């Protein structure tokens, strides 16, 4: 608009200040006025073009500001993801270290604990009924880690861990047949058969127990119970460490 005002002022100067304007007989004032008006029109169009370009510039500036804001937001998001990735990488590294430790322990062998024994180490043996109901498995097949004591029939856990324990019992129909797996004096699982008309009975059972170092596991007869064994290994007691805890 300031440009338009300046143009009008210029026109006024041309119309009223130009010397000798009314004395030129060869100039058609109407044509001159038309030229001046045409000039004003052209100047006005140019002014509108300038204003339009200014509007375009303002729109471009607004888009540029919006782009800057978006870039700033995306940078903040990238920084956030970068921090999260660093945290994940730290946890991954810690996991890798734990895996390496487990591999090293596995390579070293770790604690190796296993035992297996049967009741009779010579001839035939009938055990029970009796006041001392503890079963002592004399014939030792294996005793890695020396957790089993063949003198007492007790397995003492050398380390904290989960242990797999199993046993089998065999007997004749004259008495209750079966036995109870005990842990520190508390019954865990058992086998059991009433006296019956058939000639003999057998049973087996197994369990996974969490034992602390020093816990004692052993077998006991039922009241008035009896089991039988010979060198064929009918009545047995076995166990091994699954893994430390």
Summarize the entry for a quick read.
The protein is α+β, with helices and mostly antiparallel strands and 245 residues long. The chain has helices spanning 2-16, 29-108; strands spanning 114-118, 125-127, 134-135, 139-144, 148-149, 154-156, 161-172, 179-183, 186-190, 200-211, 216-221, 227-229, 236-244. The chain is built from two helices and 13 strands; from the N terminus they run ααβββββββββββββ.
Topology diagram in text:
Blueprint: H1 2-16, H2 29-108, E1 114-118, E2 125-127, E3 134-135, E4 139-144, E5 148-149, E6 154-156, E7 161-172, E8 179-183, E9 186-190, E10 200-211, E11 216-221, E12 227-229, E13 236-244
Antiparallel strand pairs: 1-4, 1-13, 2-12, 3-11, 5-6, 6-11, 7-10, 7-13, 8-9, 8-11
What can you tell me about this protein's structure?
There is one protein chain. With 245 residues, this protein is α+β, with helices and mostly antiparallel strands. The protein folds into two domains: 2-106; 114-244, Jelly Rolls, CATH 2.60.120.40. The chain is 39% helix and 30% strand. It is built from two helices and 13 strands; from the N terminus they run ααβββββββββββββ. The strands form three sheets. Strands 3, 5, 6, 8, 9 and 11 form a six-stranded antiparallel β-sheet that branches. A five-stranded antiparallel β-sheet has the order 4-1-13-7-10, with no helix packed on it. Strands 2-12 form a two-stranded antiparallel sheet. Strand 8 (179-183) and strand 9 form a beta hairpin. Helix 1 (2-16) runs antiparallel to helix 2 (29-108). The longest helix has 80 residues, at 29-108. Its main location: secreted. It is found in: Secreted. Residues 108-245 form the C1q domain.
């Amino acid at each position: 608009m300031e440009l338009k005002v300046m143009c009008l002022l210029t026109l006024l100067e041309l119309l009223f200040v130009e010397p000798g304007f009314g004395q030129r007989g060869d100039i058609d004032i109407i044509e001159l006025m038309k030229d001046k008006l045409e000039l004003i029109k052209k100047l006005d169009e140019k002014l509108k073009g300038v204003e339009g370009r200014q509007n375009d510039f303002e729109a471009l500036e607004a888009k540029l500001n919006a782009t800057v804001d978006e870039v700033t937001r995306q940078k903040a998001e990238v920084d956030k993801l970068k921090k999260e990735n660093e945290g994940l990488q730290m946890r991954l590294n810690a996991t890798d270290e734990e895996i390496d430790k487990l591999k090293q322990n596995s390579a070293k062998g770790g604690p190796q604990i296993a035992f297996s024994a049967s009741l009779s180490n010579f001839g035939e043996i009938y055990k029970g009924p009796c006041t001392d109901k503890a079963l002592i498995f004399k014939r030792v097949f294996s005793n890695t880690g020396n957790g089993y004591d063949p003198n007492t029939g007790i397995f003492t856990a050398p380390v904290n861990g989960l242990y797999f324990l199993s046993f089998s019992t065999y007997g004749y129909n004259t008495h209750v047949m079966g036995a109870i797996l005990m842990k520190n004096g508390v019954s865990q699982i058992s086998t059991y058969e009433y006296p019956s008309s058939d000639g003999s009975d057998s049973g087996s059972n197994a369990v996974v127990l969490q034992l602390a170092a020093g816990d004692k596991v052993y077998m006991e007869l039922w009241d008035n119970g009896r089991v039988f064994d010979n060198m064929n290994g009918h009545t047995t007691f076995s166990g091994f460490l699954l893994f430390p805890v």
